[in-house]
């Protein structure tokens, strides 16, 4: 009996011990699982918040439309007084003037043509943003290039400024006149060029018979006043309605002659000109440069000839 009791007691004790051990093990396993899951939860939370903030950023970047504004004049990258510079990711552009071309042969599209010099033979893809006069609207079109030089004439290489006509074709607008044009490479980057679009039309709708365009005058020391007068008068007799002169530097006497014709007869129009980029523009250096770098000079001469033509194509 005693034995039985004892035995049962010891058995009883043993089983209690086993249960305790079992509960202890269970508890430690639960504690282990809880700790780990808490740890994993913390990790996930951390990862999630991090992810959220970066999503937040990119979402903001995606959703917030970049405010595209016509650049203020103080933010424009001017170059040598008469030019505007555009620094692309591959090549530097110099814009001289922009013109509105809606001649019939142009077809369904009107074109903005931008007379420019670019230090690349094959410039990169750029876009035009055309702003309209009495509308805050603007349109974006892909620009195409018209190389206005021939490779056989020399200087056909990158880094030398090449004359180009940049064309921005856009659907003909009935009531809106294009007013300004800016060129850019990537959306949402600050625009630092803005050219007023030239659109000279005859006020009385009568086209004039003919005009003469004269490339940049460079007569720093020679006084050719008398011969200049003879030439202007002869052209006048031959029926020329207007002579468009571009001027680098001329003798003061010649300058007076041109001013006289411009003020008194309207037969002459004079426009100052400069060389774009890092080409020299102080009178003596420029004279030397134009005399010695003949191909460069000819490439630069393309600009006044075409400027004169596109400015007056409707007149
Ligand atoms: C996420 O957006 C909220 C408001 O929408 C802003 O307070 C928070 O600064 C943004 N976080 C980051 C990292 O930009
Ligand atoms: C820049 O353009 C020239 C051709 O115009 C090309 O040969 C050159 O690889 C371009 N450079 C870069 C960095 O894209
Ligand atoms: C826009 O300008 C044209 C002519 O310049 C004018 O007829 C038209 O009424 C103007 N439209 C607005 C909305 O101002
Ligand atoms: C610039 O963004 C506008 C709208 O955000 C889009 O319509 C246009 O195609 C984009 N232009 C370029 C050149 O990426
Ligand atoms: C031209 O200018 C010079 C001074 O620079 C003057 O001495 C000369 O008489 C002028 N020539 C004519 C034809 O007026
Ligand atoms: C022509 O006009 C300009 C300004 O209108 C004046 O500065 C200049 O002295 C005039 N020149 C002549 C020769 O009349």
TrEMBL record:
<comment type="similarity">
    <text>Belongs to the glycosyltransferase 92 family.</text>
</comment>
<keyword id="KW-0472">Membrane</keyword>
<dbReference type="GO" id="GO:0005737">
    <property type="term" value="C:cytoplasm"/>
</dbReference>
<feature type="transmembrane region" description="Helical">
    <location>
        <begin position="20"/>
        <end position="47"/>
    </location>
</feature>
<keyword id="KW-0808">Transferase</keyword>
<dbReference type="GO" id="GO:0016757">
    <property type="term" value="F:glycosyltransferase activity"/>
</dbReference>
<dbReference type="InterPro" id="IPR008166">
    <property type="entry name" value="Glyco_transf_92"/>
</dbReference>
<keyword id="KW-1133">Transmembrane helix</keyword>
<dbReference type="Pfam" id="PF01697">
    <property type="entry name" value="Glyco_transf_92"/>
</dbReference>
<keyword id="KW-0812">Transmembrane</keyword>
<protein>
    <recommendedName>
        <fullName>Glycosyltransferase family 92 protein</fullName>
        <ecNumber>2.4.1.-</ecNumber>
    </recommendedName>
</protein>
<keyword id="KW-0328">Glycosyltransferase</keyword>
<dbReference type="GO" id="GO:0016020">
    <property type="term" value="C:membrane"/>
</dbReference>
